[in-house]
Amino acid sequence: MLADANPLVLSAMSEIFDKDPRFSLVATSATAEGFLGTVMRVPVQVGIIDWNLPALGGAKLIEVLRDQANAPRLVVYADDSGDVPRKAMSAGAAGFAPRSSAVDGLLDTCLAVASGKMVFPFLDVRGLQTDPIEQLSRRERTMLEALSKGLTNKELSKELEISTNTVKFHLSNLYEKLSVKNRAQAIAFYYANRAAKGDFSLEE
């Protein structure tokens, strides 16, 4: 089950989990209370929640469910600013997936949590010194290359065979990883890297 106050994120995540045969999406909610009400009535194995869910908040929701016999194992999907991962772990969450990471990371975290593992990130300073391009998922690299051709969100949606909401979701992650604010800056980043590396390619 998914719970996020942002309808764009909720819609994009719903589509991603719906299309992945490894998962069965039970329900979604925009509030902590809605999530709580559903998982108390319907069997849910893994729940993905936003840390700032209205109105209870992620920490309180985790604490409430912690004492329930058949409660789902919870993955917090949020910005990894400050000490949110540590707070999520202290509250009793089973995992944490940063919004800045590739969607594949969230899926892998959910699978690991479903199998009984605890999954929390750590800061590897070596990663701060690597090329941002290397941190992009294959889908994000493809999207960056398509962006450089001047494709609109609608055209990206058609070319990549995903909804426009999912395009926006991937673009948001892409911008954050490249430390840019919009598509113009992302395109400039793409050409700057290609020029710097000579025979630059986004393909692996």
Structural class: alpha/beta
Order of helices and strands: EHEHEHEHEHHHHH
Separation, N- and C-terminal Cα atoms: 34 Å
- The percentage of residues in β strands lies in 5-15%
Main sheet characteristics: 5 strands, parallel
By DSSP, the count of extended strands is: 5
Broad shape: elongated
**Widest sheet: strand ordering:** 2-1-3-4-5
Overall radius of gyration: 18 Å
Identify low-pLDDT runs: 123-129, 198-204
Fraction of residues in helices?
40-55%
**Helix count, DSSP H or I runs of 4 or more residues:** 9
Could you report the average pLDDT, rounded to the nearest whole number?
A: 83
Keywords: DNA-binding, Phosphoprotein, Transcription, Transcription regulation
Pfam families: GerE, Response_reg
Domain Response regulatory: 1-114
Modified residues (4-aspartylphosphate): 50
Verbal overview:
With 204 residues, this protein is an alpha/beta fold. It is built from nine helices and five strands, in the order βαβαβαβαβααααα. The protein has helices at residues 7-19, 32-39, 58-66, 84-91, 103-114, 138-148, 153-160, 164-178, 183-197, and strands at residues 2-3, 28-29, 46-49, 73-78, 95-98. The protein has a five-stranded parallel β-sheet with strand order 2-1-3-4-5, sandwiched between helices. Strand 4 (73-78), helix 4 and strand 5 (95-98) form a beta-alpha-beta unit. Helix 6 packs across helix 9. The radius of gyration is 18 Å and the shape is elongated. Keywords: DNA-binding, Phosphoprotein, Transcription, Transcription regulation. Residues 129-194 form the HTH luxR-type domain. Residues 1-114 form the Response regulatory domain.
